[in-house]
Batch of 3 targets.
Target 1
Amino acid sequence: MKKIYLSVLSAIMALFFTTTASAATGEGGVRLITDTNYYGIQGYFTVPSDVFVSNDGSYIAFYFGFGDVCEGGISYNPSEKWKKFLNCGKNDPKSNKSMPLANQPNAGDSIHIKLVNNLNDTASLYINGIEAYTLPVQNAGTLKAPKKVKMVHTTQDNQDKNRYKNAAFSNVQVQTSKGGPYTTFPTNITPVFPFPSGKGDYEIIRSNPLATTLKAGK
């Protein structure tokens, strides 16, 4: 009886530790999304310090988006370093582009990011005032009206080793009419965290606009 009890206890403990370890890897992040539809979103991104990302398909990314239709901003992985990207459809190369930044930023540098809904099933990404991409959506009809907008800090962390300190959005603004002025991102919104499923060891330094630190697994 004692041997059986110990065997069952060992199995339970093994399952617990396996679940705990696996829950710390994969995709995770922090997201702020509006309740109201807007035509554009812009703001400044402060490049974090102490960046480490595993060279295994892992990455960190900081971006704006129109719902789940288009997402554009800045990301980092060891092979390409810091790059700009616009993703309006993962399965269509016409709708998904990325390229390393010509001038690689240093920790603490500020990068202006703007994402515009053109209301014709295309979105435009601007980096430091220069148009990076204008891409069509993969699914026709999904970007012909204003959308909820979001700001996101996220990671794909395949070994639970990714880390950085003090990544931040600031002076984030939304566009309330086509071609109209920008106003402050709504202040009454709280972040969805953890997003999407509890992975990533994030510390929220500031909730709106987002500022975070990502810690490597213990």
Target 2
Amino acid sequence: MLGVVTGIGVVLAVLGAAMVALNLFVFSHTYNPSWWDDDVPVLETFVPASSSEIDELSVLSSVPGVLFLLAMCFICTGRVLRGGVGIALAQGPARGTVVSANTYLSPRAHLAWLGVALAFWIVLIPVPVILSLGGGWPVTVSDATRDQVWVNLVLYGGLAAAIAGTLLVSHHKKQHYLALAAADNLRLDEPQREIWRWLTFRWRFDLWLGGIGGAFVGASFSALAYDHPATLVILLAIGIVLMVLGVLLARQYWRAELPLGLAESYS
């Protein structure tokens, strides 16, 4: 049963990726006749559509996001249920929590998933930016739908970069903690500090900072296609700062005095 739950999530994720590809194909081959330059011949692969029809098609841009959200729900639920789930009845802010214990990914598997996320980001943002700077797709797309092409590229390329940022900070968090444990560092014997338990264990603010920072960094490169270097610098700087803060916070996980592989939700 648990494999079925996770499997449904994987299928939904694959459908989401396929939907992104479909969106890019549809918007790259649709044009509004009233916007088309009469001096430019219409390619046979292009399909005419009115402004209202193009607006209706724009709804397609949100479909992959819904599929990815549902996929995350199924995959995370299957992952949590695969481990030991119980209720921790404690005093103070920690009372009434649902705790799950799971094995964590090996460093090699962790880096492999990081590579997958980076590959999706490269395909969705750097490659189209480079092509557009050379006068290729998506510059060749009709003016009426070019913005929708970039919406899909930046939205889901930024999502891939956010996942990569989260995985990067998570990998550093795990490796730093394991290094302290392997060295029998005396800091691991210090009393638990509730604030660090709250920040780095229950709510994983370090990973949130890494994900948001990764999204800013990943999306920033799309500004090059619009010749906005200032936007690139601003978004890149914000992303780097957030990711650095995420790494610094992740390095404090040992203060929570909890082993890797645990998770909890307040209820």
Target 3
Amino acid sequence: MSSQAKWNILAQQVPMSQTDFKAGEGGAFNMDTWDGYLADRDRLMDFLAKQKPSNPVCLSGDAHSHWAMDLKADFNNPQSAIVGSEIVCSSISSGGNGDDAVHRYFNTSDNPHIKFYNNRRGYVRCTLTPDTWKADYLSMLEVTTPFGTISNRASFVVENGRPGLQAD
């Protein structure tokens, strides 16, 4: 790989990381995300694992909720290498106000690569330097009333040369 880029950004429509919505054995997956395209995702994760481009970060959306996730060489093996990071931005207003239910849709022990989830509406502010990528997950308590307040629900950092999200 010949890229000299400090940050390799993959901006695309839907969450890439695996999300198992069924606790315990077996699994239940959203086929409208990359979980419905396993061979394609496996090829991309294999490329990231073998070619090791500098600091891959995937920007995703269309989930109507905030997510912070590590990209894994093999999502079915929690011990596999972290090959990148994924930042999923909520919608700004669709779906109403949302709520603060945390992990209501999935079991965290079945998805250890998921570092953060929030069902409020808002956006993600990303600040990049040569050494760090910082993602602030900003959300509104209410989008259905004028002059609502916004708050930072969580912040994560990706350090240059260190794949994966670290809570900030």
